[in-house]
TrEMBL record:
The keyword Transmembrane helix applies. Belongs to the TMEM135 family. Keywords: Membrane, Transmembrane, Transmembrane helix. It comes from Nesidiocoris tenuis. Residues 11-145 form the Transmembrane protein 135 N-terminal domain. This is Transmembrane protein 135. It is found in: Endomembrane system.
Length: 451
């Protein structure tokens, strides 16, 4: 029979619940140090290295030293998270005497998260807070669905992405966006011409030159045909560039070229990105079966991101140009319907994490604009609170109802703890009616089956 009050305590010691593999609380926490350091080092070396590569320049000694110190600081932050959670769970047990539904995982995670996030650089706290809030919001949704409080809406993530994209692109056109990942992604998808404050600077290039008679005699027939084809193709592109565009359009060349060039270019980049990801994710299989590398480029899944990028860019640009021609002027509000319809292309590459990221990013940017204009009160420690609160939800879910946790996040917790979070006993908490121990067994079996 389930305990009705979540505040009612259960008779379980920290040794039986938190660290059944060790008698000592201190030793149990110290055993988490090595796996936490190992996983955090792997994560942050990769993250900081990718960030350096995206800058497109060779770092100097000062930048390398700054990056190294950033990696060390971030590793300490993440390691203190894992070790601190275990230590705080034992500490609260000694102070309060027993565990209840909230003090078993939520409260120790909340307290350790606050202490840990203060170690990280202030400039990274917003990004970390946004990430865990993203995962926590999805987790809360799954918890509500499992309790039958709400019913999932088919293609709901597409609507969330479309609505978020619409208003983010409106802000992009009307105010500009802060220099962060979502700004870079939107600029990549729709181009710099739609950005707030853009000034045209490009001019139409000259048409391609044709081969002279004496040049034709010096090259072979196959090479001549290829050069003639390239000249013909460049001529057709030039003719498309010379087409019609509305005077209020910010882009160079014609509207037809603007739409077609964007759609084709984004398809190429999307396909190349997805292909690299697929090859990297299947690298171990490719080593065993090299012929797989020849099949991956033709998988339907390899084209999904390319199709989404291409459709998003083409639709947004087409509706934006159509709106300028229809209204006979450039209205920033056109970005809302253009962004929403373009966002429907997300059905080609559906992902809950991306949709929620755009939603939370919209809320963050809107709040920032509200503070800037004096409509909202600035909360300086809001990222710290949201990070701690969201992390507490995730750790609480990992203990009480792990089936509702995103599988990738569960694997992350397992890697950070060296598999110890899967060894923590949930038997005493079955009294709350969530079948926590059974959920853990089912989750571990599911993870094992996927390997």
């Amino acid at each position: 029979m389930a305990i009705l009050s979540k505040c009612q305590t259960v008779p379980v010691s920290c040794k039986d619940y938190v660290h059944p593999w060790s008698e000592s609380c201190v030793w149990a926490s110290s055993t988490l140090l090595l796996p936490c350091l190992k996983e955090s080092f792997r994560i942050y070396v990769t993250a900081y290295s990718v960030a350096m590569l995206l800058r497109g320049k060779v770092p100097n000694g000062k930048e390398l030293a700054y990056t190294f110190l950033g990696i060390v600081r971030s590793c300490i932050f993440l390691t203190s998270h894992g070790v601190g959670y275990s230590g705080m769970a034992c500490f609260l047990r000694r102070v309060l005497g027993r565990y209840n539904f909230y003090t078993a995982s939520f409260l120790p995670s909340f307290l350790s998260s606050i202490l840990s996030i203060l170690i990280e650089r202030p400039s990274r706290r917003v990004l970390l807070s946004l990430y865990v809030t993203n995962v926590a919001s999805e987790t809360l949704f799954r918890m509500a669905v499992s309790r039958k409080l709400i019913k999932p809406v088919q293609y709901g993530e597409v609507f969330v992405f479309s609505a978020s994209s619409a208003f983010l692109l409106y802000i992009y056109r009307n105010h500009g966006l802060p220099k962060d990942p979502v700004y870079s992604l939107l600029k990549f998808l729709v181009g710099p011409y739609e950005e707030f404050g853009y000034t045209p600077s490009e001019s139409l290039a000259e048409p391609p030159n044709h081969l002279r008679p004496e040049t034709k005699k010096k090259i072979g027939t196959a090479q001549l045909k290829w050069i003639q084809f390239l000249n013909w193709f460049q001529t057709q592109v030039y003719l498309v560039k010379c087409g019609i565009s509305h005077p209020s359009c910010p882009h160079p060349y014609s509207c037809s070229y603007y739409v077609l060039e964007g759609a084709c270019r984004k398809f190429f980049y999307g396909y190349l990105t997805q292909l690299c990801i697929k090859l990297l994710m299947n690298s171990t299989k490719i080593v065993k079966s090299p012929s797989l590398a020849l099949r991956i480029p033709f998988w339907p899944e390899t084209f999904r991101l390319a199709a989404m990028f291409s459709a998003f860019c083409g639709i947004f640009r087409y509706i934006s140009c159509w709106g300028r021609e229809t209204c006979d002027k450039d209205l920033t509000t056109t970005a809302i319907p253009a962004g929403f319809v373009a966002g429907l292309s997300f059905c080609l590459y559906r992902d809950n994490s991306i949709a929620l990221y755009f939603m939370w990013k919209l809320l963050q940017i809107t709040y920032g604009l509200g503070v800037e204009k004096g409509y909202c009160i600035e909360l300086p420690y809001a990222p710290v609170f949201f990070h701690a609160f969201s992390t507490a939800i995730l750790f609480h879910t990992a203990i009480m109802e792990p089936k509702n946790l995103r599988l990738s996040y569960w694997n992350f917790l397992q890697a950070m703890s060296g598999g110890k979070i899967g060894e923590m006993s949930r038997d005493a908490f079955d009294a709350y009616g969530l079948e926590s121990s059974k959920q853990l067994s089912d989750l571990l079996a599911r993870v094992k089956a996927k390997k």
